[in-house]
Amino acid sequence: MNKKKTILSGIQPSGKLHIGNYFGAMKQHIRMQDEGEAFYFLANYHSLTSVNNGELLQKFTLDVVLDYLALGLDPEKCTFFAQSDVPQTTELAWILGCLTPVSLMEKGVSYKDKVAQGLGANIGLFTYPVLQAADILIYHSDLVPVGEDQKQNIEICRDLAGKLNRQYDRELLVIPEEYIVKSVAIVPGIDGRKMSKSYNNTIEIFDEGSSLKKRVMSVQTDSTALEQPKDPDKCNVFALIKLFADADLINETAQNYRRGGYGYGHAKKELLSLINDYFGEAREKRKELQRDIGYVKDVLKEGGKKARIRAESVMEPIRSATGLFRSFK
Ligand code: ADP
Ligand code: TRP
Asked: Whole-model pTM?
């Protein structure tokens, strides 16, 4: 029998999660908990590159845990934990960093993007991909489900794993593969650019009522009049509808667009109702979980324990191969 694949992914707790995060990453994470041995974590060390307020980071972290649990992540099926509960990660990141050419980090697209958006150019942000590589490699992960924008970071991770193995001439690390769902490569935001926290163009997963309605109604469209035929494939509202609707409804809506007499207002109402149906159950579940924060913290505690055991088993041969002295167990 084939060994179950080890699946790993992380998400930064750095603000409210949106439907781009859901369709680009979280949905796959939740599905894949049934397909292998899955490790999912809150990348809170990574969040320190942009969030420098302790209370806020704590809040964001618990919020993301609540989001995942409400959306169907099952801590019985996967190991769900906080990155900061596994100190072996930063230990490995240092070792990898010592094999990382500065020129490799200088090619980092994500670093350049973030600095262009106004994030301070700190060393943490510059070496972010090295820490991300350690996150992945410390569990001997095989498969990393992420959004398209993470492709380069996974390439860097594979590169660094190969470097360490070659340097010490043994198979200390497993070379992982990325897993990107092409059909939902980039979810557009309400302004048509990539949906992202940093563009203030998101529709949040757990928004509801009038606040959600306002966001949906402000999705940008062109000014084609109601009675005119419209091209669904050029419309942001339709792109979002496609994420939520089944094949029949997608066809029907596309025909409505092409026929004319169907306005963007109609499409937005359709979208709002689809979002409410899709996330309705999860919203209720989240409210319930919020009343039991003790349980939520226990989930992280248990997950952290399991993750540390695995990380230690990968780290020990690396300490030995690299010649690092340790006088305690
Ligand atoms: P943000 O751009 O809002 O800061 P992150 O960079 O924290 O989002 O992304 C977290 C995860 O969600 C990543 O795996 C990323 O690929 C995915 N993701 C974020 N935005 C989108 C989007 N608009 N479309 C598809 N996937 C996305
Ligand atoms: N960089 C990822 C993001 O912005 C988060 C992340 C950190 C991650 N470490 C990871 C994703 C390891 C996959 C594997 O979304």
From this structure: 0.94
Question: Mind listing the pLDDT tens digit of every residue in the chain (329 residues)?
Answer: 568 999 999 999 999 999 999 998 899 999 999 999 999 999 999 999 999 999 999 999 999 999 999 999 999 999 999 999 999 999 999 999 999 999 999 999 999 998 998 888 999 999 999 999 999 999 999 999 988 889 999 999 999 999 999 999 999 999 999 898 776 668 999 999 999 988 899 999 999 999 999 999 999 999 999 999 999 999 999 999 999 999 999 999 999 999 999 999 999 999 999 999 999 999 999 999 999 999 999 999 999 999 999 999 999 999 999 999 989 88
Report the atom number in ligand 2 closest to the C-alpha of 131: 9
Q: Which of 4, 77, 163, 194 is catalytic?
A: 194
Examine the residue annotation and report whether 301 is marked as an active-site residue of this protein. no
Nearest CA to ligand 2 atom 6: 10
Domains along the sequence of the chain with CATH: 6-186+293-322 (3.40.50.620), 206-288 (1.10.240.10)
Is 303 a pocket residue for ligand 2 (Cβ < 6 Å)? no
Q: What is the number of residues in the chain?
A: 329
